[in-house]
Amino acid sequence: MDAGENKHFFILKPKTDWDWPSGQKFEDESGPVEKDIPQNRVFYVIATPNDNRDQFPSVDYWLDHWAWVEADSENPNFPINFSLRFSEALR
Amino acid sequence: MNIKEELSTWGLESSKKFVPVAYYDKFMDTIRIEFRDCSSWEKRVDECLTLIFDNFPENEGSQELCGLVIKGVGHLFGSLGLPDHGVIKVAELLDRVIKETYSDALSKKEVTRAFQVVETLDMQLDYNLKAA
Questions:
Q1: Is A45 within 8 Å of A12 (Cβ atoms)?
Q2: Do the Cβ atoms of B112 and B84 come closer than 8 Å?
Q3: Which residues in B lie closer than 8 A to residue A65 (C-beta atoms)?
Q4: Radius of gyration of chain A (CA)
């Protein structure tokens, strides 16, 4: 298992989102459709720092997961309840 | 280059239609159960459970469930004596995990809804199907 404390969360507020028309992924050549970003959401990427530099010297992080989540009501550029969920802010 | 040509450069020309899927992600120590394939957002219920909703539901303003995530699987399954290999029914898995460990979550309407969807789909979790 590798789900310990050593995870970094990159928090983003992209200018746009992309989605496939329902049920049409890979069905034709139209591709995904650009959308406005979801309201009151931020995008985050969970990454694990590469601790195997000998084998993968050019890799900084392994990307584990990414998703939209609710934005914090007081700090809309951060995830909801971020102060309770993250131990340290790296800027 | 169109989308199919681009996919073929990644060896994905034989991509098939999405089907509901449940898999164990060992890097996140989570089980992800996905009913629909769409742009989505995640709502944390508690330290064990996250629900996934459609970002752009057909009925604007509604919350259309796309899936759910069970977290801390290694510890949780050990304490419940659940198997960590083979194939198990997702409905049975949720029944054990939620009812025996996180019964408080069942008071939330959206968690009950997730149960209903999973039972309808009769999904299985195959530990051999893992995230990349």
A1: yes
A2: no
A3: 25, 28
A4: 17
What's the confidence (pLDDT) of residue B13?
58
B111-125 average pLDDT score = 78
In chain A, how long is the greatest CA-to-CA distance?
45
A91/chain B closest Cα distance in angstroms: 23
| Residue position matching structure tokens 């509604």 | B62
Interacting residues of B43 by C-beta distance below 8 A, sequence separation 6+: A69, A70, B50, B51, B52, B53, B110
Helix, strand, or coil here: B67?
strand
- ipTM confidence: 0.75
pLDDT digits (tens, 9 = 90+) for B31-85: 888 888 888 999 988 878 889 998 888 877 777 888 989 888 888 778 878 777 7
CA B107 to CA A39: how far, in whole Å?
A: 27
Distance from CA of A58 to the nearest CA of B (A): 20
